[in-house]
Amino acid sequence: MATTSDISRGMVLKLDGNLYSIVEFGENKTARAAAKVWAKLKGVDNNRSIEKTWNSGETIYPVRVEKKAFQFLYKDESGYNLMNNETFEQIVLAEEMIDAPQFLKDNGEIFVLINTETDQPIGAELPEKIVVKITYCEPGLRGDTATRATKPATIDTGAIVNVPLFVEDGETIRINTKTGEYVERVKE
């Protein structure tokens, strides 16, 4: 059995019949009372975000989750069609199950989180950083660089990200899929 001392960021727990992923956690210690462990939880199988507090040493119920590499094939009315890179098995996921679907590229890699108890997918996430090509952006104005000014740019997935003024149309850049922020230019 797992206890509150085993809590870590990203762990999936079963609470009241639902699955929650730990976003943030900490411990409150006081001189007179027993220590408490708190956590901010994000629903895996629902869209709820909650906070939970346990007494230190209390039993928790983690769910074993495997992360498998899949390839994005196409999107249709049933959802996002993905193929397992090892078994070539295809699955369909709804848009709300995917973190940052706006950055998903055709034939791009995506990691599907699978509940090992039920062998059902519970979510999907993109790699932390991906390389994309800018399809359209306004030219930057000369002498407008005193501050960290940015401009909107459309990338090849159709999403719009803010990039520094020196980035030009047609360039390849790396972006962070968790925050949607520009990271750096990529040399081709």
Précis, in short:
With 188 residues, the protein is mostly beta strands. The chain has no helices and 16 strands.
Q: Give the neighbour order of strands across the main sheet.
A: 9-8-7-10-11
Main β sheet profile: 5 strands, antiparallel
CATH class value of the largest domain: Mainly Beta
Distance between the termini: 50 Å
Succession of helices and strands:
EEEEEEEEEEEEEEEE
**Strand content bin:** over 45%
Subunit arrangement of the protein: single chain
Question: Can you walk through the features of this model?
Answer:
This protein has strands at about 1-5, 10-15, 20-30, 35-45, 50-55, 60, 65-75, 80-85, 90-95, 110-115, 120-125, 130-135, 150-155, 160-165, 170-175, 180-185. It is mainly β and about 190 residues long. It has 3 domains: about 1-60, SH3 type barrels, CATH 2.30.30; about 65-125, OB fold (Dihydrolipoamide Acetyltransferase, E2P) (Beta Barrel), CATH 2.40.50.140; about 130-185, OB fold (Dihydrolipoamide Acetyltransferase, E2P), CATH 2.40.50.140. The protein has a 5-stranded antiparallel sheet, with no helix packed on it. Strands 14-13-12-15-16 form a 5-stranded antiparallel sheet, with no helix packed on it. It is flat, with a radius of gyration of 21 Å. The chain starts with a strand and ends with a strand. The relative contact order is 0.13.
